[in-house]
Amino acid sequence: MKKITIEQLNTIKGIFQRIMPECEIRFFAEEDDLPELSPGIDVVLMGDSEPDKKKLRQIKKELAQEMPFNVDICIWAKLPDELRQAMIKKIKKI
């Protein structure tokens, strides 16, 4: 399976940092590997509250313009506890 490149990863992180510098994002990845594209990538936006909707729309718009694959954003604050527990070992900060 194809993996995301460091350049693409940095582009995604840069978009989040520019629009929401206070946010922490994590990716699904195995061990110390880069995330796989199948067919896109899932990004988890960490935090105890929902992000600003206007900023989130801007991030989604820029990701769609910049990335040649789909970037799905999971909002940690909206996920049920049982799903969080299942995900916590599979996501990592890069």
Average pLDDT level = 88
Structural class: alpha+beta
Largest sheet properties: 4 strands, mixed
Which range best describes the helical content: under 10%, 10-25%, 25-40%, 40-55%, 55-70% or over 70%? 25-40%
Total strands: the figure is 4
What string gives the helices and strands in order? HEEHEHE
Distance between the termini: 19 Å
Unreliable stretches, pLDDT < 50, 5 or more residues? none
Helical segment tally?
3
Features:
4-stranded mixed β-sheet, alpha+beta, single chain, 94 residues
Short characterization:
The protein has helices at residues 6-19, 53-66, 81-87, and strands at 25-28, 41-45, 71-75, 91-92. With 94 residues, it is α+β, with helices and mostly antiparallel strands. The chain has a four-stranded mixed sheet, covered by helices on one side.
Chain-wise SSE layout:
Layout lengths: L5 H14 L5 E4 L12 E5 L7 H14 L4 E5 L5 H7 L3 E2 L2
Parallel strand pairs: 2-3
Antiparallel strand pairs: 1-2, 1-4
Description:
Strand 2, helix 2 and strand 3 (71-75) form a beta-alpha-beta unit. The relative contact order is 0.23. A four-stranded mixed beta sheet has the order 3-2-1-4, covered by helices on one side. The protein is an alpha+beta fold and 94 residues long. It has helices at residues 6-19, 53-66, 81-87, and strands at 25-28, 41-45, 71-75, 91-92. It starts with 5 loop residues before the first helix and ends with a strand. Helix 1 (6-19) runs antiparallel to helix 2. It has three helices and four strands, in the order αββαβαβ.
